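Appendix B, record 7
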Amino acid sequence: MLFNSQFVKHWRLVILLQLAGFILAACTTPAALTTVSAHNEATHSLAFVESVLNTVVAETSGLVCLNDGSFLTINDSGHSATVYRLSSAGDILDQFSIDAANQDWEAMTVHQGKLWLGDIGNNSGARQGGDLYQVAIKLDSQHINHAQKTSYVYPDLPLLPLQTYQHDFDAEALVSANQQLLLFNKAWQSEHSSVYRLITKDAVTSAHKIADIHGLPGVITDAAFSQEQQLFVITGYARPRQNLLNMALYDNYQPFLAVLDLDFKLQAIVPVSQGGQLEGICIDQQHQIWLSQEQSKRHAALLWRWGSIQQLNQQKITESLQIK
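Structure tokens (predicted):
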């Protein structure tokens, strides 16, 4: 999600009204969590492989690792209903038109042998849920690819209208795990994110809230599941209302990776100081974690390899630090 002028105007007013509050908040120290020190992060940074993305996918907003070593990505709202195949060098190898609408595509995953596209963005709060499109995993670059559409409604949705950027019914993470299709909300308002199980039957999708995720230092922008480790790896960045000065002045999103167990309990937080507006994550056949990053004011759109699941799992036992 590229922040638009409406977002900037809205939060500029918040900055002026709450500047004192931000200064005080910056001086407070939340409870200690298991994180990775700067030294440990630098130690593992040798595994990084960074590639600049073509400007055609500058608003990358989802990532899938394919078995042949290539990747699929999408752009979010304001773009065509197109899936792009990328090389590990960030080059566009193919592009595939989908017979769907891109109101706000924010996520993609492979689930039960199909590629699922999540039109699940809802910054304004005007939507009651989202749309899902299923397409064949083997896409055709010469023809428009057929998509089966279903929609869901949040079961705990309050009365509309919701306030733009001030609600919890927006999402950017869709992940398949142990035959379940899960959606993690973005939680603009709350200090915790929620997990919904999406069940599709007879072309109808229902959403069931199954858990809350506590202790994250920000919003969730994507998620991946390690079948081998039985762990979720999520990516995100600091909540804008708590990080506006850094974002506005330095284009610093304070991005992070986080590890969750099968019960959605937080196991580790890993700062990603090299990153910007992280929007996509996937895990390849060699258990390597790949990230995609949207173009922002001072950061190029990137595809990069962070390192292995084994490295991430080892970092769960690093020293306990405090997030400041």
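Remarks on this record: The radius of gyration is 19 Å. Residues 16-46, 318-324 have pLDDT under 50 and may be disordered.
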